[in-house]
């Protein structure tokens, strides 16, 4: 997609990478999304904050050729965007590029995060990494910045900051002027799929950017785009893997465990929880309210598992399967059981708070049961050759589901198998012998004493 032109109204000059017949003027303050403004530079924190770097001299005839050559031969093998960006900017600085500050903002695929960014300064290198969220897209801070225009329109935006008629139509520009910068440039970084990321540059040169500066920045941006795209692709893949199949499972897939049957046998506490009265609720509630209920229910229980070292493996209708792997490095079976119980308590407590709020809004309570078991499971790829699921299978996973199915019948929110009770760090009380489908012998299940009917 050809870049449109931003004309600097003070000079009449405009610049772009591809010819375009009509310049695009951005003259007035206008709604713009802004990557949350980075905090102002902290002054005089150390000696480097008090003096200029004597080893770097701005050269009127500087060229990015050396830095681009490094980027395309060595830098592209860097395993992090931060490492590649920091080294690239440092090489540009050493070659005399008059860039005092640069920010790289990359759009990403994530259910919560809209994008993330890095800030580099000549004085401190790459010293800040931050994320911004989908929820901030309509906030004033986001809507009053040049970054939004670049994201939305794939345009360049330049503002001189040291002239009598300088326009500060975005709040960030005054911040840049206050930090000693004289010229500001925001430019699009176009990836191969059309996605737009953003590069910003500031200079401290008294006269601001020259035409040569703008030309060289355009060249270095064009070289940087495919390298940043390639390196950030793994980060995006990791985010998607973690979002859809979990952190541990996602790491396994990215490490090459992608064929049906790839997996390992692990010892783990298996967690299974299920929503109570889901059929009645789905008949009673409109679809949007039922979806909101399910999201609240899954969010509370999934966060409790993740915050206590477990992993959510699968959502099955209104049920959820998770594991707490056993490892000698993290305390063995008893420690895994403790993490699972802690997650159960957090789920109960947070759901109690959520239900109080739901009652105030005339919404039905969310009730659920949790079943816990410990045993060996096969952890890996199952499914059809071209459509796989990374999950756990085996009798232990089935046993956790069978245990949970009794919670409704007994009116007890948390039940465990005898195997789990044997390694539990807390005292467990018997909830009786019961028959499980597919198992000939009666099975004893346990709960915490406080959950037994006679304790209430």
Summary?
The protein is α+β, with helices and mostly antiparallel strands and 456 residues long. Helices cover 36% and strands 25% of the residues.
Order of helices and strands: EEHHEEEHHEHEEHHEHHEEHEEHEHEE
The whole-angstrom Rg is 29 Å
How many strand units? 16
Gap between N and C termini: 68 Å
The tally of domains stands at: 2
- What is the beta-strand fraction? 25-35%
Mean pLDDT: 78
The CATH class designation of the largest domain is Alpha Beta
CATH domain topology of the largest domain: Beta-Lactamase
Low-confidence stretches: 1-57
Q: From the 3D coordinates, which CATH architecture of the largest domain would you assign?
A: 2-Layer Sandwich
Quick one: biggest sheet? 8 strands, mixed
Structural class: alpha+beta
Question: CATH homologous superfamily of the largest domain - what is it?
Answer: GAF domain
- Helix residue percentage: 25-40%
Discrete helix count: 12
Overall shape: it is: elongated
Task: Give a verbal description of the structure.
The chain has about 450 residues and is α+β, with helices and mostly antiparallel strands. It has 2 domains: about 5-245, Beta-Lactamase (2-Layer Sandwich); about 245-455, Nucleotide cyclase, GGDEF domain (Alpha-Beta Plaits). About 35% of the residues lie in helices and about 25% in strands. It has 12 helices and 16 strands. Strands 9, 10, 11, 12, 13, 14, 15 and 16 form an 8-stranded mixed beta sheet that branches. Strands 5-4-3-8-7-6 form a 6-stranded antiparallel beta sheet. A two-stranded antiparallel ribbon has the order 1-2. A hairpin with a 2-residue loop joins strand 10 and strand 11. Helix 9 (about 285-305) runs antiparallel to helix 10 (about 330-360). The longest helix has about 35 residues, at about 210-245. The chain starts with 5 loop residues before the first strand and ends in a 9-residue tail after the last strand. Mean pLDDT is about 80; it is low at about 1-55.
